[in-house]
Amino acid sequence: MEKLKMQTTNIVDENIKKIGELFPNCLTERLNAEGKPEVAIDFDQLRQELSKDIVEGQEERYQFTWPDKRNAIRLANAPTTDTLRPCREESVDFDNTQNLYIEGDNLQVLKLLRENYLGKVKMIYIDPPYNTGNDFVYNDNFDQDKQEYVHNSGQYDEEGNQLVTNTESNGRFHTDWLNMIYPRLKVAKDLLSDDGVIFISIDDNEVENLRKVCDEIFGSINFASPFIWSLPRGINAGLIARAHEYILCYTKNIFAVGRFNRLSDDVEYSIERCNKKIDSRHPESTIDFPSGIRYEGPDKTLEGEIEGSETIRIIGREVFKNGSLVEPVTLSAGWTMKNMILDWLAGREVYDTKGQKIVEFFFKDNGKLYSKKELNTYSIKSILKDIADTQKARIEIEELFGNQDIFSYPKTVDLPKLFSKLSTNKDSVILDFFSGSATTAHAVMQLNAEDGGNRKFIMVQLPEKTDGNSEARKAGYKNICEIGKERIRRAGKKIKEEHPEAKNLDTGFRVLKLDSSNMQDVYYTPADFNDRDLFEENIKPDRTDEDLLFQTMIELGIELSAKTIKTEIAGKTVWNVSDGYLLACFDEEVNETTITEIAKQHPYYFVMRDSSLANDNVADNFEQIFEHYSKGTIRRIL
């Protein structure tokens, strides 16, 4: 059987594959660092394919760059062998919830999520460090080799630090922040669905740099708008009291998004003229209109032609009196909605291509026909005046914890709740990878309770230690993750009490923690070990079967919220994921009876340890058993 790789996809390899599909003549081979042949790109050949005039070398061009940018890109593309280990004791309703709370360095977590949630996230909201000179940035050391980075990412050093204070006196003040944010946004883009949207809170310190970074990653055409969050209290420092923050809004594909959802049940209407200039797309044709159609304007009679760039010929007379057309009339024009008009005149309900109902067709004072349609979508104003400032957020914290100072500078629930209402469907996945106090999780549960939705949240947060003298530490919270998880527990309980009708509301969450691979080094680099080492156990001794299961799910692209059931077949533990999509057995001494019963269930995937089979006879019969009972099952080993 083929071995699982137990590491994330190498994005560079994927990009080389895509280029090869477009320009196969640009593929070549070279020897890698280990002296083995690998596929590479012939850049000279690629240049010839793309253009005769290449911008390269020292030629001046428009670009946005900074020290270590290339390394930041490399960091986003590099694969990881890290894994996510389940933590049942800190979870709520682990076996049934669809929500995730993940602890660890968000860059490594995003890479792992890319294996399972590629193109599946409808909305991302993040509130990253603003780079005020007093906050922290992730200490991504680009001088480390890959192995050192894997061990340090998401972990603490000997002094318990993973974040570093980015002071204004630092000569790399903006550089360090850019090197932190760039790879995370680059990976996050891959998680968004084609109609997905990302909202990023920021202030004046880095808004210009963030805009340039997002223009490069998402494309300037996909920039929707900066929201201006009005903060009446403001910050009375400097020449002008700053009374606003920004939320940058970018889409994955602005043409796929269209417009945002309505914020309330109040119906908005669109009024559109029903004819255009006569041309090949809008050929001239006639429509017979009966009397009684509504009219807006003073009484009048029109004959001949209605002048303008979009000519309408009146065959007969248009007679309007007391707000309606009083005589049948035939009009000849370049109609834009002829079939819809005819259906409406025939008494049928009419909907446009977006599913929006045409309420009526009516005449205006100029004698031209217009449509009135109900809008499913909404154009929100860029100035957010009705979203409360951080004082309300502090009150929300106090209502849950009894102390406003448990978490510094929280965002109000109203902010991510607003963006969720605007941009998501009732079953969307919502991601926040700078989770903080888990405001976004609170907002998702609140919105689901209000509109009956089943949105799922994924929160990602590094377990930053709380200050030893802080109110959070005094209350017993050693790190921010403990605050976030407790907030979700308390908020979920409070929301259920306030909404007893929301009986199926999911307020649980499955806790996963970033860690190094479950596999020993020999698994990844067998050439570096002797024959004796190769026959030793390739799984770390402190790892459980459930740890192995979740790394397998990551490898196979199965959502980390998928239902997992622990069963027993012929005395051996077998894990059933997503109703038999994956069956996995990591026990030792697995015999033919267990293998046969597993094969009879026809799983899509079956995974087991390399050393699981009881003896050589079982190994010899293994493939025959699956060929007989479940030929299509994909079999893999660790």
Characterization of this structure:
The model is unreliable at 141-161 (pLDDT under 50). With 638 residues, the chain is α/β, with parallel strands linked by helices. The strands form 8 sheets. The protein has a 10-stranded mixed β-sheet with strand order 4-29-5-28-27-6-9-11-10-26, with helices on both faces. The chain has 4 domains: 2-63, no CATH class; 77-264 and 379-515, Rossmann fold; 269-374, no CATH class; 526-637, no CATH class. The chain contains 19 helices and 34 strands.
Radius of gyration: 30 Å
Uncertain ranges: 141-161
By CATH's scheme, which homologous superfamily of the largest domain applies?
Vaccinia Virus protein VP39
* Average pLDDT level: 87
Query: What oligomeric state best describes the polypeptide chains here?
Result: single chain
Strand content: 25-35%
Q: Which architecture of the largest domain would the CATH scheme give at its second level?
A: 3-Layer(aba) Sandwich
Total strands: the figure is: 34
Query: Structurally, how many domains make up the residues?
Result: 4
Alpha plus pi helix count: 19
